[in-house]
Write a structure and sequence with these properties.
Length: 196
């Protein structure tokens, strides 16, 4: 007869009972996630944020794999220098021309261009064209829509008020990011700057 000690038996039962639960939590959704033009799949608290960062695929839609956004970016506008310690980001230029600075390297991208910004790489970007530009942004893993939702209720990223700057630094830290410096165009109007 096989001699099995109690610890081995408990371990085996634990693995057998937990394994189906782990598979259930990581199983991808079997449903399509559809976002028609002008639609948002995430209910942002701020209508302005919903228009600026339309969420086309939520973390819930992708079982946590990614979130995807369509960003409307005014001319000479973009986020300050920052770093994500969690998310990798992929950008695709739909319209306009953009300057990206990722890890100290500059890339000028017209419509149809794309760039990968891995986590822990300092980066910023700006719409260098004279009209509104559009980007597709994929964040991996998902969940970044929650940051954008809170950002829509936060002080402007161009604030000089120390108390408001402290709030912004705390918000970024909550989502595994750090603000490191100014945007490419420091004169970006307050209502138009946005961290991505």
């Amino acid at each position: 007869m096989l001699n099995i000690n109690r610890r081995t038996l408990l371990y085996a039962f634990g693995v057998v009972s937990v394994s189906p639960l782990l598979r259930a939590q990581t199983a991808p959704s079997r449903r399509a996630a559809v976002a028609k033009p002008g639609e948002n799949r995430f209910a942002f608290a701020s209508e302005q944020q919903a228009q600026r960062t339309a969420c086309k695929l939520t973390s819930d839609d992708s079982a946590g794999a990614c979130s995807i956004f369509e960003l409307g970016v005014p001319p000479r506008s973009g986020p300050p220098l920052h770093v994500h310690h969690r998310e990798d980001e992929w950008y695709y230029v739909l319209s306009g021309e953009f300057l990206f600075e990722v890890g100290g390297e500059q890339s000028h991208l017209p419509a149809g261009g794309s760039i990968w910004a891995p986590h822990d790489a300092r980066h910023r970007w700006a719409n260098t064209s004279t009209g509104e530009g559009k980007l597709i942004l994929m964040c991996q893993p998902g969940g970044f829509e929650k940051f954008f939702d809170e950002l829509g209720k936060a002080p402007s990223l161009s604030t000089q008020n120390p108390s408001e700057m402290h709030q912004l630094h705390e918000l970024h830290a909550k989502y595994g990011m750090e603000l490191l410096g100014p945007p490419i165009f420091p004169s970006t109007p307050p209502a138009q700057s946005n961290s991505r």
